[in-house]
Amino acid sequence: MFLLIDDISFSYPGSGIMLFSDLSLSFSQGWTVIAGANGVGKSTLMSIAAGELEPDNGRVRRSGDAILCPQVFDGLKPEDWADIFSGDNHVGMLKSTLSITDEMIEREHELSGGEKKRLQLLAALSHSPELLILDEPTNHLDRYSRDLMAKALKDFDGIGIMISHDRSFASALSSRTVILSRGMDGTVAAEDIPLPLGAALEESDRRKKAGRDSYESIQSLMSAENMIARKLGERSQAKRRNLTKRGIDSKDHDAKARIDGARLSGKDASLDGAMRNHATRSRQLGEKLESIGKPLMRKEGLSLQGGMRVLDLSFPASTLKAGDYSLSVPELTIKAGSHIAITGLNGSGKTLFLKAFYDHQAELGKDRYILYLPQEFSSEENERILSLFRSLDDEEKGNIISDMFRMGSEPSSIFSSSLSPSPGEMKKLALALSRRDGRSVLLMDEPTNHLDIVSMRILERMLREDGRDMTVLLVSHDEAFLSACTDTVWRVEREGQSGVLLV
Question: Going along 194-253, which residue ranges are E strands?
Fold first, then answer.
């Protein structure tokens, strides 16, 4: 079994921008992870691999059927029902592994997000494809659903390709990572690294730094050779001026003889030769620099500390309600600078607690020190944030855009002409704007759901290194992210219609 992407080029009609140019990749049995920033072309490349898009040039060859599972599951197709209820033992084992019952399948549109993703995977695997492509399969999923899906995917014996920023999930399945990045000319290059996602990203960083160091070293040598050639040229010109017979008395035969002797000695010719050698080496080094190109090393991350007021926070013992469900929360005291992870299964009340915590601080008048980033912004909240951005003068807007660039956004994609950033860009915009107000408390509900792996790792470093003095409460299922930027774990446990926050 094989998938060959051979020297493809692709651009979207009417865009005028070449996305891929002479891009080649090959895949065989086993799992490969595709990673890269938002907008770099991951989903487009996978649509080409699956045959849903045709390249402008080059070709794609595959040895069998391909199935692409997009991020959003639109429901079962007619052909899915036939295979799922075929009575095949393999499909029966998949249902058991994914904890999907026939009753759940019959009410597919009433399922939770995690159940729908498991049903999507069941449908895909029931067709026994040779090529299976998954686009961000674990977005919004809790650990229970992720573990069930990982177990089913480990038994897949075809060619598996996964677009993912979930390092724990991806690393459990794959030891090969392809990182897509945009070059100086705007086209996308692929870096193929035989390591799990987390280690591959670190290796890519190391290679970029080594490439930048090498470039700067060659650049320094070229400058030195240039300087030496220039000085030798100046000395040669000075010698030539000293060896002219103009201005010498026609009867001063001794002076003329000394000049003739110096000319015959060839010292000036030797100086010219040395100058030419250094000039040649400088030109060769310049050609080498031009051929390799300057590696991109963007400045990343923001300081989250300047001008912020550090606060201790409290929350009274409470019973929080959401319909018939109740969550018991003990009395809490949170020391300034704490970085707390809030974990638990979907539906256990993590978001319920985080919102109640924020509302309580607002009642105490402390909300002006807090940035609360929910899972999704409402349309009203989006408009409030965008209105705040629009009210800034050009210099302040430039500073905000610069901050967002340092959080992994590309200037061309930060704001469309209609000012409708993606959910991930909205979160970064809110964070950039909050720096103007001296916030010292950060409440984030599933912040990585809409962030690409580049932005997510930048946020990790910001919280771990620059945000040490901030108070941070994070709700997330991303274990690698929580491990990198929190030091305390609170867990919400649910049984039936009751839950408790364990601290």
Answer: none
